[in-house]
Amino acid sequence: MKQSFAIWELIVRGLEASLTVRGMLAIFTGVVLHELGHILFGRLVRIPITGVVIGEGRRLCGWRMGAITFTIHAIPTSGYVEHAEYHATPLRSAVVAAGGIVVNVAVGIACLAFCLAAEPVGWVGKMLWAIALTHLALAAMSLAPRQYKDGNKSDGLLLLEAWRGFERGNGSTR
Ligand SMILES: [Zn+2]
Fold it and tell me: Is 68 domain-assigned?
């Protein structure tokens, strides 16, 4: 009982640490690693990512790296990846959509486990708490099935659609 209370106290302290500039930094790392997760998983199933857009609002800068165009906007609290038209199977689409969430969950759990086990102190400790909580929150938010105004779909919606396609696919081959 006492032990679990201590953990809650630590989590509250972690939340506190997230509501600062550190929080913005943590969200930025969360968004960037999330999009890199899409690129990585896209590579795995050979769906090339052609563009990575980080943030909303005014465009700050952009550059090209290999076949991928990176663009950074003023409010770096969200992001998305672009890919060329492709005929992906539901499974391959699902892998790409899951990539960002998988990376966020992995980083979030690793940082959370480290914070609970090692109780790091100071700026680094607070930063790790902020990273742990924002990565897990981003993963949860990405899982919600949503269609955005600009036509983009959330990872959750893409996974849901892939799953439905997968079920149909299975049904027709039976
Ligand atoms: Zn995503």
Answer: yes
C-alpha of residue 51 to centroid of ligand 1, in Å: 13
pLDDT by residue for the chain (174 residues), tens only, comes to 556 677 888 888 777 766 678 888 899 999 999 999 999 999 999 888 999 999 989 999 999 999 899 999 998 888 999 887 666 788 888 999 999 999 999 999 999 999 999 999 988 998 999 999 999 999 999 999 998 887 888 999 989 988 888 776 554 444
Q: Residue 146 domain-assigned?
A: yes
Distance, CA 142 to ligand 1 centroid (Å)? Answer: 6
Q: Which amino acid is at 100?
A: G
Which pTM does this prediction carry? 0.82
Which distant-in-sequence residues (6+ apart) come within 8 Å of 91 by Cβ?
45, 162, 166
52 domain-assigned? yes
Residues with CB under 5 A from ligand 1 (ion): 100, 155
Could you list the residue range(s) of the whole structural domain that residue 84 is in?
Answer: 10-163
